[in-house]
């Protein structure tokens, strides 16, 4: 009887459109796993939580990339995870893409708050780690928060959600869908003011392009982690410092604003160039 029920459930699942299955599985793979770290942190403290999270993430990556049971889904999981071996040249462009992606996002946030005042209260609410006793432990929590989000969200959104839709409907539609859902899950945050919506959506698009062009989740994961370390330590918690620049409506167009604009444009161009290089490396390897 149990086997019959399982077969019936499997049949119903497979009858759903590919896009629907990808959205559901991607969302669950990303969000359920990403919240394990928070549960560990709140219940075990930083030190024990980092040990538990490390073990969890190793098993998580192993399973989502095609390891473990059930055997019949291993190939599908490896495909969704984009499990490939990066060449040395792709590793080089991975570092470039990751660094300049994070720089692009942070420069865009700085530019946003040169046009409107930085709402520090809404950004810091719930992120100041009042239950963590020391600065080193707060940094440890920040780093593991970023690693957890980077690995789990990229696996879910740019892997399990985007990859199957890519293969059925093409990259533009897949990247658009994964970016919309990536943005939507962040709209519940206290910092989700209107100006942050295009920044989060743009970050999702760039991460989707990086994953698609490189054929791997690793570059997007690294870029996501670097971005989140900056977000959590500076914009969210303030342990790395405070943003003190005033809007240009008050200060006028100053040198800092011009430098930020140049940094944003240069970083974005480097990310796009890296994406083009990923595509070129992929075509040369075929």
Structure commentary:
With 286 residues, the protein is mainly alpha-helical. Helices cover 78% and strands 0% of the residues. It has one domain. The protein has helices at 2-15, 18-44, 46-64, 74-81, 88-115, 120-124, 135-169, 171-186, 196-214, 218-236, 248-251, 255-284. Helix 7 packs antiparallel against helix 8 (171-186), helix 8 (171-186) packs across helix 9 and helix 9 (196-214) runs antiparallel to helix 10 (218-236).
Strand content: under 5%
- Measured as a percent range, the helix fraction is over 70%
Mean pLDDT: 93
What is the quaternary state of this protein?
single chain
Tell me the major beta sheet.
none
Order of helices and strands: HHHHHHHHHHHH
Helix segment count? Answer: 12
The whole-angstrom Rg is 20 Å
Overall body shape: globular
Counted up, domains total 1
